[in-house]
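Case study.
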Amino acid sequence: MRTPRTSALLAAVALVSALALTACGGGDIENEDAAGGEECGTIDMAINPWVGYEASAHVVGYVAETKLGCTVNYKDLDEQVSWQGFGEGEVDVIIENWGHPELQKKYFESKGGDGSAMSAGPNGNEGIIGWYLPPWMAEEYPDITDWKNLNKYSELFQTPESGDKGTLYDGDPGFVTNDEALVKNLDLDYEVVFAGSENALIEGFRKAEENKTPYLGYFYEPQWFLSEVPLVKVELPEYTEGCDADPEEVACDYPLYTLDKIVATDFAESGSPGYELVENFKWTNEDQNEVAKMIASVGMDPEEAAQQWVEDNPDKVEAWLP
Amino acid sequence: MSSIATVRPKTHDTGALATLRARWRLVSLLAVVAMWVLVWAFTRGEQTLAIQASDRTDIHGWFLARTTAIENADNVVTSLLAALSSGMDATLLFLQHLFTVPEYPRPYPQIGWLGALAIASLAAYAVAGWRQVLVVAPSFLLFGLLGYYEDAMDLLIVTGVAVAVALLIGIPLGIWMGHSKIVAAVVTPVLDVMQTMPSFVYLLPFSILFGIGPAVAALVTLVYAMPPSVRVTAYAVRGVSTTTLEATDSLGQNRWQRLRHVELPMAKRTIIVGVNQTTMAALAMATIAAYVDGPGLGQPVLEGLRRGQLGKSFVAGLAIVIMAIMLDRTTTAASTRSDRVARGDRDTGRVRTVALVAGTVVTLAAVYLSNSYTWANQFPEGVNIGDPISTKVDDLADWLRSDLSAITTGVQETFTLYFLNPVQDLVANSPWFVAGLAILAIAWIVGGVRALGAAAVCLAGIYWLDLWNNAMITLTAVLVATVVVMILGLAVGVWMGRSQVVDRSVRPVLDAAQTMPPFVYLIPVLVLFDANRFTAMVAGIIYAAPVAIKLIADGVSGVSATTVEAAESAGSSRLQMITKVQLPMARGSILLAANQGLLYVLSMVVIGGMVGAGALGFDIVYGFRQANFAGKGLAAGITIVLIGIMLDRITTYGARRAQSPGRATVRRKRLSLSRAET
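After joint prediction, the assembly is written out as follows.
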């Protein structure tokens, strides 16, 4: 029995002395100097699953790292899970938030929540959600873009997954959506099938336009893909203030979203220059589409895409700096 | 004996009766299904209890209210849980600062890839022997080459911490269980339920209790991974020969001495088998824990799945496969080594000591270098084989879906339209009470009164949870996929069972396939077939086939040689031999294979919820992603567990009935599933 014990002991000695050694340091790894003078520390940036979001997050992250000397951790999280992370110190920033009044109630102090999160103002992007069709369909069936005529064409959209109803493709299960309620309340012969991701929707639309096959799907702007294939939006009953108050009874279009930045209250109060950057950050849908296109269509690394945009737009970036 | 009876009916009357009884069962099963179809034809689509993904009922609201209450509660239990979670957080953060996450203002972690590689190699040598160094070191290099060094280390850290704590609790509990019949009686059913629960089901309740992040990932992993170590330890302690115990007792040892010097050393090898199983379970769970923001290789897999970048998922999946092989080989070798050591047949002491000391010195040097120099800390980015592989896979996926889409979608649509949809139509579009009665009748015929009772309780629970229709859709997917698993299992299993050569060449592949985390199987299937119900089922079939094949092969090869010879001398052909002798004799094993097949498929179909499988798996995913649906997600989780228990009970009782000699073998077999006895 001696050998295993000796080896365990040796391994322990090795580990302890390794730790002791590492404490001595030396060599060419030097501690980083905080570039901004003030210590920035780390920023935990949530990455929600669509490319436009990724574009915004990486541009802000790139500026924070290169101009302010922050360390940025990117965390792939769903919208709602990201909110949950504020109170637990797992998330500092959501760079593009789509409304979520129910979560504001839960986490904003101003709305009676636990106060772990707060808004850092609009990020300049305007959000639109709706149902879209490939352009060939709008040409072939001009009246299809009115929701009232969707039932007339439901047979076109039948798939094995939806049986004798038409398929309406939704995106990621985490996205903001009223589609099932809309289908029910507008008496449409459709069934909502979750395509699963933004990419799946884009692939679906792209193939539909190429092969002239029918496809009806949930989609949104800002969206780089619309410059590649100019999808046509279906007109739903007009949005009026409060018509979407009861999620089960919704029978109207989505509102126009003013996208904003949500931050952890602790992060906002930390005095980090990183927070000031987030607060100052503001750009247009076109800006975002430009970066998103580099990532999704050109296939660049998000970091490289951010770098390129930052280098091409020094004035805009300058305005964000604390 | 019944099989011989079919060949020579005169000699064994009891055998003939048994055959008749088996036939009677088959006939009544067919009758039930026929009745079901008939009633369905007239009532189709009525009272199916279908609800939409965005519908919630009172019971789901009740669950949601409970979760909110738990989240907001402030009492002893919650503060205890919070302490547990922050303790775990601190431990993980300490290790991450050592290996993966730089601690400000230092730009890199304390120990880089070279140091980690050296430490791992030394550890592998110490516990498992020098051969394992040849597995561990290249694995670490491959993590780096694939471009996922940090994620791999994070996964190792979470898995390692979870396994350590799981063993710290599991082994003592197992020893206690091995000594006390009462404890065993209390703990065993709990372990049964825990092992029936698909890994995915654990995540939602844990994220409600502990939130998200590394700590909850480690906690859910350790809970999921503990049962095998408890079970195997208890089994090992119970297996220590009574003669030895009596002999040493007569020398006047006290209980502590007995445990320390007799029982533990004798049970050690089997206990390490438990360590192996616990480690593999932990790896599977830690991967899926990416859903609750657990760090590690699960993250890039999930990210790729979410964004439809399958190449990325594929490369990360490859790294997981490498890690699974590495951990499995090392823990298995540790078990064989401890056996050799126990028998006094070990590496010569001096060589080993010298090697250990030298290894320690080299390791220290490597750690120092990786602490001090960038090249030894950060894996060189220039040498990367991950990106080309990822691009190739993406190209392949494009090609399959554009140029070959006629074939892939053809296969998928044919299967869906002509097989899956009709069965689903029958099961899910019957009125709930019709489907329920039919299932109860089937349970009764297959497993007897006890199975009937279990099924009744489970179905009542499913009805109460308001997810009946989704439960039926998931059940359909499970049943249809299991049929395919059984066809595969019978074909390959009989082939293996009848030929040692085939067995020897196929078994290692199956063994390796069984150690893979289920998550990994989804990726290649997604590349082929895109996201839909079919994809999840194919992944489930691939995941479940190895265990079913092995069980059937064991059953067939276990048919006694005398029986086979007797049948041969009676002049039965090869086909007769298989259908009249070997398969009937292996009936118990086949039902057991069905049991395992069903549970494996269930766990996979649930994970498939996020790639188009819909139904209950989707309800859970939705519960994660939309706060208002957490209650419904929990209800879906419980429903899945109820389906699992129901299928398990029906097939287990059925298998016991079919296996006339020795009822206890069912449990025993289950324990040995993952090569416990090899």
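Observations recorded in class. The domain at 2-61+404-672 of chain B is CATH 1.10.3720.10 (MetI-like fold). Confidence is low (pLDDT under 50) at residues 1-12, 661-678 of chain B. We will return to this complex in the next lecture.
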